[in-house]
Write a structure and sequence with these properties.
The complex is a heterodimer. Chain A is α+β, with helices and mostly antiparallel strands. In chain A, 19% of the residues lie in helices and 33% in strands. In chain A, strands 1, 2, 3, 4, 5, 6 and 7 form a seven-stranded mixed beta sheet that branches. In chain B, helix 1 crosses helix 3. In chain B, strands 1, 2, 3, 4, 5, 6 and 7 form a seven-stranded mixed beta sheet that branches. Classes of the chains: A alpha+beta, B alpha+beta.
Amino acid sequence: MSGDSRAKIRKIVTFVEETRVEMGKNIDPPTRKAAAVAVIENPFAGKYTEDLTELMLVGEELGELLTQRAVAALGIAGPSAESYGKAAAVGENGELEHAAAILHPKMGTPVRRVLGKGAALIPSSKKRGGLGVTLEIPLGHKDAAFVRSHFDGMEVRINDSPRANEIMVAIAVTDSGRPLARVGGLTKDQIKGEDGLR
Amino acid sequence: MPEVQVRKNVLVLEEILHEGGPIGRKPLQRVAVLAVIRNPYAGGYVEKIEAFMDDLKPLGLEMARKMIAALGGDPKVVEGYGKGAIVGSAGEIEHGALWHAPGGYGMREVLGGAKAIVASTKKVGGPGARLDVPITHINASYVRSHFDAMEVGITDAPRADEILLALVMTTGPRIHARSGGLKVSEIKGEDGLR
């Protein structure tokens, strides 16, 4: 994989979280979230580089790979995914802009290709940190950002990442909203799916 | 007998391609399956708790099967294993010890005759507590290349009246193992140690 890919990947970690009971109530079917995280070498660690194109292309590549991994971990077809999010953590020798280059210019297209659709903005977060830093991946409905039952997040961490010259890149996908959503707002059966908002 | 009530399951699959050294032919995989259960003994001292080990056996088996599935379905790829537990604050460390037998049983069942003791650890901790689950070779504890560990934990678990149960498996030695000791090729396979 690493041989013919643009991203120099050291490891890939996949997380699946399944909630069966919340506050004593059975959740049936269980709510499920998956995140796939790649730990890659930061080609721009240690010095200022003006042109970040390389990382934008890495973002495009990882958008496809990590979305495929996350969907496979849930055992569902891409179009069955309900919400999504992305995040990156840059090791101490990098800058926040490196995370932005991966996440924003080119990552969304392959994510949406794998999921079939995805009219809504992919919510994101980024930070710089050391080994074991936690990434809070925000989650929102993939077709309508205002669906309130699907506002959520998923925390992931890898104890040996990111090293100083590395970047952690994460994509999260769910097949559901919060376990006991009941604070109103737009529901998923009301989605028009035209503008990505409602 | 207390019922085993699972609140959530978490699966973590690590695929390690390298750690600064040469990229080997096949990545090392480490998989962990965690289950958060209600602690039936939380809140007060209960003398007789042993029977709960039998209640936990089906869960141990279910977790081990999930791990094999995550590794592609063939139990033969598994070379290392370990287990652990984090007991929420209203429980005691002894409740974590209840996991020794059923956790080991589940993995041995799916692996078919693993000889070595399953390395383990446990502690009392709050939500988000991390556990470094030790890992050793499934047939010979002394195989040095397979001494490893996997850090696991769940942000919202264990709550005070819960126990977080963990099983881990690996598919090979540390990614750049080169610290000598007993090798896989030297395993006698008689006593589970060498």
